Amino acid sequence: MARVARAAKVLPSLEWLAPRLRLTRALALACFFGLIALLLVNDLWFADLHGARVAVILAIELLPLSLLLPGLLMGSARAHAWACFVVNIYFIKGVLAAFDPARVLLGWSEVAISLGLFVSALLYVRWRFQFERRQAGEA
Fold first, then answer.
1. Number of domains in the chain
2. Are 129 and 77 in contact (CB under 8 A)?
3. Which entry of 22, 31, 59, 81 is 20 to 30 Å from 125 by CA?
4. For residues 80 and 77, what is the distance between their CA atoms, to the nearest angstrom?
5. In a domain, 20, yes or no
6. Any idea what DSSP says for residue 2?
């Protein structure tokens, strides 16, 4: 059976993509730093760590985010794509915390921020590649 060739999808214009790239990058950075702030504030002031060292807990929680920081600050599409994978750890952690009555506010906050980071980083990657393809002359 012969395959029918699909028509290529038309890429959006550069004028349409540019403001969306700026917005999604700004949202991704805001959610990224918001997640870091949430983890810091929670672990330094509110968390009952049962005698664990705060520095060790923070190092474990912030290490994955610190590896992404240089790429996100430079606007790397690859770093934003990796952020979509890494942020799932914090999403799961937030969902688990949301079911503990003592940490429900922290849990839902972590879920909301990590979801915001995931969506904004994902859209940034998609539109960044479309922007680059359009700049290269692809229609």
1. 1
2. yes
3. 59
4. 5
5. yes
6. P
Tell whether 2 is covered by a domain: no
Residue at token pair 């985010």: 65
Domain that holds residue 31: 15-135
Split the chain (139 residues) into runs of 10 and give each run's mean pLDDT.
75 96 98 97 85 88 97 98 98 96 95 98 97 90
Taken in order 98, 55, 45, 41, the sign of the CA dihedral is negative
Coil, strand or helix at 42: helix
Alpha helices, DSSP H, located in the chain: 14-41, 54-74, 77-98, 104-135
* Tally of CA atoms within 13 A in the half-sphere of 116 that contains its CB: 18
- Does residue 96 belong to any structural domain of this protein? yes
The 3-state DSSP class for residue 7 equals coil
